[in-house]
Write a structure and sequence with these properties.
Length: 128
């Protein structure tokens, strides 16, 4: 029984490390593993989570491959997702001002969507 929990714990721990990328210095002499967290185009600063700490440094210190990866990551991050438009969603296109409401104090008020949600929570209650 304990062996099963140990194996499950190891599996979950290994999943956390699966997304780490190996980063290489511009001269190719040093490498480290970490996850890209942020890139500021204006300053050229890169934030990488490595060893539980956020490392912030200039992109000039990275290899050409790593810089290309950062540019791809930035492009994907800025690209509009398909969920941006409610009309693209099966459930989203049926949501209108008449359907959505929010409890404000003791009364309900109509609400309009400001952006398309990524997830929906549907609740159904039946009484027989």
């Amino acid at each position: 029984m304990k062996r099963k929990y140990l194996l499950m714990g190891c599996l979950l721990a290994s999943l956390g490390w699966a997304s780490a990328r190996t980063w290489t210095s511009a001269d190719g002499t040093r490498t480290f593993e970490g996850d890209l967290k942020n890139f500021d185009e204006a300053t050229g600063k890169v934030t990488v989570l490595a060893g539980g700490q956020n490392l912030i440094f200039s992109q000039d210190k990275l290899s050409e491959d790593d810089r290309a990866y950062i540019q791809e990551w930035q492009t994907k991050k800025e690209a509009p997702s398909p969920a941006e438009s409610l009309e693209d969603q099966k459930i989203g296109k049926k949501l209108t001002d008449k359907v959505l409401s929010r409890l404000d104090g003791k009364k309900f008020e109509s609400v309009s969507m400001t952006k398309a949600p990524e997830y929906y929570l549907l609740y159904f209650s039946a009484s027989w």
